[in-house]
Fold these 2 entries.
Entry 1:
Amino acid sequence: MNKQSGFIEITSVCYADCPYCNAAKDSGHMEPGKIKYLLDEMKARGVSNCTLSGGEPFFHPDIYSILPYAKSIGMNLLVISNGTCVASELCQFLSAEYDVSIQLTFDGYNAESHDKTRGAGNFYKLTTGLRTLCNRGDYSGRVFLRINLHSGNIGQIDRILEMFQREYFDDSNTAAQIDLIFAKLLTSGGVEPGRFNEYLSKDEYLQSNVFRIFEAWNSTHNVKISYDT
Ligand SMILES: C[S@@+](CC[C@H](N)C(=O)[O-])C[C@H]1O[C@@H](n2cnc3c(N)ncnc32)[C@H](O)[C@@H]1O
Ligand code: SF4
């Protein structure tokens, strides 16, 4: 089995403004023809798993044709989204119809702590969309909940996980599977210098309780931890 996976930033457009964002923001939407070409090339090389990211991939105006196309050639898709439109009917339909797995980012455990970096109103949209997706009987994709760790929230991991446990790992969740990802925010890429000063140093990250928590949760859930420092 080929375990390689592909990655395409299908758009650089995003209406959010996370201060630590390391994505390029200036190249607009990728042409759908180019996206389909890249998917074909991957498939021809035996790659059957592809991640679509951005910018905000659900803002790509051709997303409604890209997902069915990828599915038609047998590609399994993971869409990395900021969650702002995961509650929309189109987004919910596409995700369920084409078995799209979704990765969503949490920076905090409530609106105040999360929206500080992800933008006003994001927590509400993200959690409403995620709850709707989890309650759909016809959604069989995987959901990856990512916690972006920085010095402002490293002390909140327990509260974030308690919220996940309460809201998404309960009996009413009919989603196939929820996996967790702990990731340290990185200074790489297009981050505007001086705009965000809460990066953890390598030592702070390694000495935090994230690895203890990882071990505890990993016995009962699928958890990935990012060692990128
Ligand atoms: C650039 S975003 C694009 C997709 C989508 N807009 C989102 O926010 O999920 C892709 C992933 O990178 C993460 N990310 C953004 N800036 C980062 C940074 N400085 N270090 C590490 N991860 C970062 C986001 O949380 C998200 O999981
Ligand atoms: S991290 Fe995602 S949601 Fe935030 S500004 Fe970057 S692309 Fe947009």
Note: The radius of gyration is 17 Å.
Entry 2:
Amino acid sequence: MDIDFNKKASSEALSDSKKPMDLILVRAIMSCTTCGKEKKFRNQFLRKDLELMVVALKVFDWMVCNKCGELFRLDLEFRV
Ligand SMILES: [Zn+2]
């Protein structure tokens, strides 16, 4: 089942996108399970732009600890 994303987004942009409640706060916490090093990132996305969040999170896929080379664990917190 395909959804025409562009058409949906443009029709919703006029009515919904200005509401602050459409904003989702995302906090990504990277932590090294070996040495305990932590990095935190924060970003916010419009609900209709959640695809952008997925793209942004891809960056974290390959992140490794610069202290011990271990792959970071990724925890996400959402606040709507
Ligand atoms: Zn480490």
Note: Residues 7-13 have pLDDT under 50 and may be disordered.
